[in-house]
Amino acid sequence: MKTLNKDFSIVHRILAVNDERAVQVLLHPQKREYAATTRKLINSAWEDARLNPQLDLANNLVPSYQESKVEDGKLLIEACVTDYKSFYGTNVCNMDQLPKSELADALAVCGVVVSKDGAILLGKRSDRVAEAQGHWHVIGGNLEVNRSDYNWRKKYDETEFRWWFLSELNPTKNLLREIEEELGLTSRQISNVYTLGLGKNLLNNKPEVLMFVQTNVSSQRLRDCATHAILHGEHSSLITLPFEDVGAFVSDYPVAPIGKAALFAALGWYHCRENWPNVEIEELIQLIGS
Known about the structure:
With about 290 residues, the chain is of the alpha+beta class.
């Protein structure tokens, strides 16, 4: 794990258990605007993606990360509205050609899912996804809102609309939905959800809320979710690992940068528990074995 922290960063660290208010996305009403040259790159990248029969992409609305801070133990994130097409065309396909001010920086959530017998679940990303194809990753996805629902609700009371939109962007709600979609596990099979902080993939500048999810199912049951996961299309296989083997696995196999951030946070919490937000990074690296 010598290169563990070269392609990700943990921007903020917190610890909250089963608190859906631990992360609040403060939404600015205006939609994100891009320069004309950037828009051309976005449109070109999206057209190419549509011509690729392997990719399965949907252009839902997503929050564009602006800035964040920790206040009274809660993670506050400011964002405005953009869409996945803009994120794909800027951060995924043209990050090296654009200034940071022109990147969509779609906000996402990912969680380390753990069995009741203490094994961490990892999935190998399929060829149908746009990011980290062929890499091992934890469970997660973009915070997103269906465009039709957004347009329909926006016609009505503005205050009610904003509350609905913020509810849709709740990271815990989104992660539980991703777990059900990707693994077939329902909320009844989830024991605890810990919010551990905010990480960033340094290779595409994408920020993600990091979580730790304890289930009440066995590691074998998690591995049995592979059929559902493969049918869903996001993963080509699933494995489980004991905590003590995660460091060696990350050293030996390709793991998505933000997946490393989530694993780093989970292992930090595993070793340090409630003191996790205060432990120095260097100490965590030694504890984890990198």
